Amino acid sequence: MASLDAATARGIGGTAATRPTGSTARPGGGSGAPGRRRRRYREYLLFLAFIAPNFLLVLVFAYWPVIYNGYLSLTDWNMLAPTKDLVGLANYRDLFTDADFLATLRQTAVFVVGVVGGSMVLGLATAVLLNQRLIGRRFVRTMAFAPHVLSGAAVGTLWLFIFDPNYGLIRPLLAPLGLTSPAWMTSSRWALPGLIIVYLWKSTGFIAIVYLAGLQNLPRDLYESAALDGAGPWRLFRKITLPLLSPVTFFLFLTTIIGAFQAFDVIALMTGGGPGISTTTLSWFIYQRAFVASDAGHAAAAAMIMFVLLVAMTALQARFLERRVHYR
Amino acid sequence: MTPQTQAARPRRAAWPKSRPALYLLLIVVGLVFVGPLYWLAASSLKPSVDIYRYPPVWIPFQLRWANFSDAWTAAPLGRFFVNSLLVSVVATAAELVFATLCAYAFAFLRFPAKRVLFLVLLGAMMVPGNVTLLPNYLTISDLGWVNTYQGLIVPGLGSVFGTFLLRQHMLTLPDAILDAARVDGASHLRTLVRIVLPVSRPMVVTVGIVTLVTKWNDFIWPLIVTNSNNMRTVPVGLLLLKSQEGYNNWGAILAGAVLAVVPVLVVFFFAQRHLVAGLTQGATKG
Q1: What residues are paired with A76 via a beta bridge?
Q2: Is A1 on the interface with B (CB under 8 A)?
Q3: Which residues pair with A85 in a beta bridge?
Q4: Rounded to a whole number, what is the distance in angstroms from the first to the last CA of chain B?
């Protein structure tokens, strides 16, 4: 770094008034073309040096994996054998005829729709509540956001305890309603809804805070004139608030979908994809195939399917956003 | 401002009817979020007779701190804690340095294909972590870095969103500051360290804290890349603790969860503004 530093001390261009005269600096000459060009190449080199560490890391650990993964998805490999056998699209064909994988896709869809839909609605409702002038709302805002920053593994551990049908917190809460707690995480019927509840708890606060910022940025005069026209609160909300919040909604929609697809740590702690495969989502499936079953080909194919799904959704999202921008 | 407040404003002094209902709602929402965290803290201190009691012990009068020493030694959670701390701090420091250099270059240095390169960098945000898992494991394995600190740290060092935020911030700096540095003949590295970094401190702190918390909480990569107790981190340790202690020692397991959560909560309460700003950045500036 030291030599770079020295080189650029001279290479930095611009107003040459007080610059010490070095080998490249031409005293009194604003028109030194070779010097200027050399200076520009120095700046290019410096640019490359500055971006190199970060850029190489991104290339090696974000872009290359996509390519490598694409290749692996066309092979049959147990992660130990010295050679990988090319099998074409067989892995994909296997997956789409595999009942377990199709169940995985269904469960992923249920999970993602449940988490995204639920947390968006609850988050917006919480934001509207926190936007009222109420004593204590700052405290509630802070506490609602907290679960979002906590370790998913710890949150999973906590909720596993809460969902325990015998001595978990859920039992005394359901008792007054005359309900007995289902077996939750050990029941193939209740484990997935239980996981959705946990993720709702973890992500609703984040959505609420982002919506709250959006609500506080809305132009007040619009409401005043609309209220003068006799529009009620619900109408104002539907006709003004929601449309004006749509950019925030799109952003949240995208981040929440991506987050939900990748959900892993809570699942790992609470169910490990079970009972049976009842809580196996795409991300757990990939992990399980690659690192438990040592089946690189099918794991990579499933990962490619997830990649394509997410890219398609992002592209769709971008189209929506574009349309909105045209409107303005 | 929401319609409700608007409508309510003229007669706010008269305590509108909906107030009590709103307060009730606020309390319910507050309980939903505070309740489980309270339950975690309270239960982690209960002796096991109280943990396995129904109806539950709402307030633990009899505290059993030994749950923590159990967790600390059962799975060597002490070791996991040190590993987590070391990995998150070192990785965050390195990532910040790389991200800052990269952001500075994209903000202030000339280069022919700069815009394209920046888009290439941003494009990496589209790559979901689950897709990179297997190939990255193979890369790290080829390097012989499985179950090492390098293996834990290096693959996560590339920064896209952090670099983006830092660059955006640097672009808002007034030209006058940088021109002054140029007049003085300061090198770029010097300009970065002496001028740009100090005035960008809020953004650097924001990116740093978000990065730190993310790395502390990271689960799937440490799970995959480590295979012995002396290299595990706290979140992975929780999984280990759970399978080791089963459901017979919830006290120790919950104490472990507390240990995973407390450092983040401390950071959260002291630097809430930065953490919230960093995590919600894309929405407001997007």
Answers
A1: A85
A2: yes
A3: A76
A4: 21
**Residue A149, SS3 per DSSP:** helix
Q: CA-to-CA distance for A146 and B224, rounded, in angstroms?
A: 27
pTM of the prediction? 0.85
Q: Residue B121: what are its φ and ψ, rounded to 5°?
A: -60, -50
Q: What is the pLDDT of residue B12?
A: 43
Q: Identify the closest residue of chain A to B109 by CA–CA distance.
A: A47
For B169-180, the pLDDT digits (tens) are: 888 888 787 777
Of A143, A157, A264, the CB nearest to B257: A157
Nearest CA-CA partner of B172 in B252, B236, B108, B77: B108
Nearest Cα residue to A148 out of A216, A192, A208: A208
C-alpha to C-alpha distances, A238 to A125, A166, A191, nearest whole angstrom: 13, 44, 35
Question: Could A233 and B4 be called an inter-chain contact, meaning their C-beta atoms sit closer than 8 Å?
Answer: yes
Q: For strands A75-76 and A85-86, give the pairing.
A: antiparallel
Q: Do B131 and A46 touch (CB under 8 A)?
A: no
> Is residue A4 over pLDDT 50?
no
Residue with tokens 């609500």, as numbered in its chain: A215
Judged against a pLDDT cut of 60, whether residue B5 lies above it is answered with no
| pLDDT of residue A51 exceeding 80 | yes
The C-alpha atoms of residue A297 and residue B205 are separated, in whole angstroms, by 42
What is the distance between the alpha carbons of residues A88 and A289, in angstroms, rounded to a whole number?
Answer: 19
Query: Would an 8 Å CB–CB cutoff place B5 in contact with chain A?
Result: yes
Task: At A14, list the tokens.
Answer: 């611009």
For A8-41, letters b (16+ CB in 10 Å) and e give: bbbbbeeebeebeeeeeeeeeeeebeebeeebee
Cis amide prior to A275 (ω within 30 degrees) = yes
